[in-house]
Specification:
Blueprint lengths: L1 H18 L7 E7 L2 E7 L6 E7 L9 E5 L36 H5 L5 H4 L3 H4 L5 H14 L4
Helix pairs in contact: 1-5
Length: about 150
């Protein structure tokens, strides 16, 4: 039952993102089959394209997870996009050399600098203001603006 609830909520979010026109060059929807959305994002300042996996597993309880993957959907870390011409932070507790530090994603709330017990802010506090369609829109904006490249 829990997976069915997550799937229904995630499907609504993806439909809303499509309706908002969030997919298309340079941010293309490659595939969507619950629980995985794959997006192909182009860098506007470097000749690179990045495959991004949005994982909606347990989305009724947890924020969407955003990871870089290769063309086969396997998680990878190189080349990793740059953030304002610098590297993204690492995520030591999750064993990640880098992660997409963005509010509304699962890794954000488990990073040592954003733990709810330290900040007082959890996914539950952001659930209404940062649903997946807003996270997708923000990731798209960051790539399109060159902030992530």
């Amino acid at each position: 039952m829990k997976a069915a609830v997550s799937e229904a909520i995630a499907a609504d979010e993806i439909q809303n993102a499509i309706a908002l026109g969030l997919f298309g060059d340079p941010f293309r929807l490659e595939s969507w089959t619950y629980p995985t959305l794959i997006v192909d994002a182009a860098s506007v300042r470097r000749p690179l394209r990045f495959h991004l996996r949005f994982d909606f597993t347990d989305y009724d309880q947890h924020a969407v997870q955003l990871r870089l993957v290769d063309e086969h959907g396997v998680e990878c870390f190189a080349p990793f996009p740059l953030r304002n011409d610098g590297i993204f932070p690492d995520h030591e507790p999750a064993g990640l050399p880098q992660f997409f530090c963005i509010t509304g994603t699962r890794d954000y709330y488990t990073h040592q600098g954003h733990l709810p017990q330290l900040t007082g802010v959890s996914w539950e506090n952001h659930r209404a203001s940062h649903p997946a369609r807003i996270v997708i829109a923000e990731v798209r904006r960051k790539f399109a603006s060159g902030e992530w490249t």
